[in-house]
Amino acid sequence: MKKLFTLVAVMGMLTFGASSIVSAQEGNEATPDTAVAQQDTLAAQQDTVGLTDEAAEPVVEEQSLHKAIKTKFIEGGPRFMSAILLTLIIGLAIVIERIIYLNLSTTNTKKLLNAIEEALEKGGVEAAKEVCRNTRGPVASIFYQGLDRVHEGIEVVEKSIVTYGSVMMGQLEKGLTWISLFIAIAPMLGFMGTVIGMIGAFDAIQAAGDISPALVAGGIKVALITTVFGLIVAIILQVFYNYLLSKIDSITNDMEDASVSLLDILVKFNLKK
Q1: What count of other Cβ atoms lies within 10 Å of the Cβ of residue 161?
Q2: Which of 21, 23, 89, 263 has the most CB atoms around it within 10 Å of its CB?
């Protein structure tokens, strides 16, 4: 009886051990599949996050530009930043007015000279003056002043053209002094804001009684923002200022060349008479 009980116990132990070994082997065989599945899941999540970040990047950049400009403008302080902004607005207003005026002052001098020459041959001086009255621009105005004094001689005509040409030059250059003034003032306002901001930073250090890197860096950053904006305004206005100067030089050269050609036409007209 004891032998039978012992045999049953041994058989039970062997059966339990075999089942445990089989279960362990099945678990080991399933582990690689589970690991691969987990890796695939992690990779999919990373790809999803990467795609989400890439899709979100343009939106962040678009928002950050507007917010950065707004934030920096507020950080620079309302007093000096508003003054710099006002300088930019007034300067651009004058620039736009000058660009429109100079474009309207541009004249096709060759076409005008041909029309005046034909008018002189067909209708005389009065017909030529009528052509100048119907043509816009400083060149036509100078021609009209010269034709109005033809009866006084070529020398008087030449002096009249030179004198009235100086008047036209003053009208072409009108407003440029203000633009140059704003180009000089904008950086000065920025520098003044920087100096005052530095004074405020040192006052904060004195009040705190300790030199904190965060406190010093924050104060200096805010102080330098006004200088940056002032330099940007000056650069923008300087570009337009140089464009206006080149435009005025082009119109002036056309005026001088056309005036010489008009004198030649009037000399020929007097000789034919």
Answers
A1: 23
A2: 263
